[in-house]
Predict the structure.
Amino acid sequence: MRLAPAPSLSARLVHVRASMARAGLDALVVTHLPNVAYLANLFATAGAAVVTATDFSVIVDGRYAQALRTLLDSPSAPDGARARIVAASYDETIADVLIESGAARVGFEAESLTIGRFRWFERTMAVRGPEIELVAADRVVSAARVIKDAHEISLIRDAAARLSAVALDAIPEAQPGRTEREVAARIDFALKSGGFERPAFDTIVASGPQSALPHARPTDRVVGRGELVVLDFGGVYGGYCVDLTRTVFTGTPDPDRARIFEAVLDAQAAAIAAVKPGVRGWQVDAAARRLLGDRGLGDAFSHGTGHGLGLEIHEEPRIVQKRPAASDDTPGGERLQPGMVFTIEPGAYLPGWGGVRIEDDVVVTADGCEVLTTVPASLTWSRR
Ligand code: GLY
Ligand code: MN
Ligand code: MN
């Protein structure tokens, strides 16, 4: 796996420490695994980290002890990181590290730590370190993650090229006579064969009336002739997620379906054209929504236009509709900046009739965006 180079990791820590200083935190307990991966290059199913102004402790249990030591001896080691191996439990070890650190004010990741775990820390520290103040910290690591660094952009660009290649093989698998589940299995096989570590989410194959459900699960329904089929799939490559949707028609499209497909494609183009630094997520959403509204499909577009991509399949920034009383720090209010990566995926869904979604991944550049996925969007794909 291509790991972030040490200078990238150092820059990430600098960013996180600056946010900690602004929030008046002496220590940050990192328990969200994608954040541990981001800061430490540690891709594991368990782990934690504690960041202070001078120290960086990476905590794993015995299953990952050898892997962590090898990592910390390698050129991909985060600068100055120290390994801590769990003795009794992760949380006991985190408590040990906090007490040894001398931190007075400690932040916990409010977006992801459960209330149960936080309460445990409150009870434990009340006995072991009553002078330590525990606070809910918001978005300290995710604020750094929202702007991808050069390593991440290079990895995501490669992943998107790989996904585009997979799509050329996988989309024609949507053949009449196969069940949705079988088509999904073939797509998953193509993802793995194409070098992805795993699917980024459960592959969606939604045919006929099922295509009107934006997040349908593949069923045993047999794909028929003359049906819309929504194919939404993504992969994890080097730890990073990419995401693509194409909608095809198994036969010669009727004018209504062709018209709705064109409307969604035009809405996607309008949204992509709206992406540039300084614009807010909800302005990009509005570009797609306005176009669909003009074509009489405003009510048929029942979700947001896009979502950030990175170590998680859904992350910041959110490209969503502006809500009444929204402020700049509500989802969609953030201004886009170069290095943000997200999807543009408008859709139109008519219950009982069918739906269309088209999804690509973009990275914001100095004056617009680069579309990373490069697969033609055509309703008649399966007949090529
Ligand atoms: N299937 C996940 C997404 O497109 O957001
Ligand atoms: Mn998506
Ligand atoms: Mn998707």
